[in-house]
Write a structure and sequence with these properties.
320 residues, mainly alpha, globular
Length: 320
Amino acid sequence: MNQAPQSSSWRSWTGRDTGEFWRGVLSGFVLFSVVWTLVVPAMRSTSFTQNAQSTTPIALPQTTLSDISDITERVLPSDGVTLPVVWGDLGAQMIASGVIDQAKFTSVYASRGGMTPEMNALLTRTDNGALTITKENAPMLLNLLWALGLGQTNAILTEGPISGEASGNDPSRFASTAGWSLSVGNPMDHFSAHSFMSLTPEQQARVERVSKGIYRPCCGNATYFPDCNHGMAMLGLLELMASQNVSEQAMFDAALAVNAYWFPETYLTIANFFESQGTPWETVPSQVALGAEYSSGAGYKALLQKTAPVPTQGGGGCGV
């Protein structure tokens, strides 16, 4: 009685029921193939789509508080940066010419806490020494240099893109011209109208070369097309440096220091990016940092896709 069940069971595997067994196996295999072919790829596709549409920010290099303090002091020294130019009596000259209306100028700063003795000296005295830019005086120097760039006669203004087809042959419509509200009369009455300094042909050529390589992050143009206040102010600084025989490299170096005080967050971020790549800020050529890849509006925007900004305060705005 014990053998019958064993024989019957063995037949279900080896006898006439074997075909049914293999048909079951085959059906199971077909079903598994269908699932693997259709369902699993669909699940993977859904997962990829969800990941692609994820709003989770890309992990960008983080900067510690100690890093920020260190980078800030190297990019924006607390004692300022002494520029390779003597200011002399340029403020007084610009008042005399009318490119600066002294009453309007002082009125603007009266609403901002008043003018410091240093500011008064730069505006009115005739014996000023070398310019030093600091976090505190950067906005005022921006305005003084803006007036200088606007008023100083130069072919870059009269024959360059700000007066050519790129501007519709109308230089009066830009922020750097129409936006200068601190002159006596119409600002265009002073556009390239005064000779505060003299440039030799070689010095003029130097200004033109350097101005084509200096960008600012508030727009997309080089200083050679000074359509905003920062561009016009930088032009004034370049003219002043060239007139005092500053070398081309020193002009770039000074321009980078000045741009950093005018756009502190931008240049702290650029410096932090280079340092995160293993390149100390002090070793980055000024021409590279000031070029379109990093210092133009579009270049800086692209950089922010690679690194996080380093927030800070200060700088000079796009108006007086």
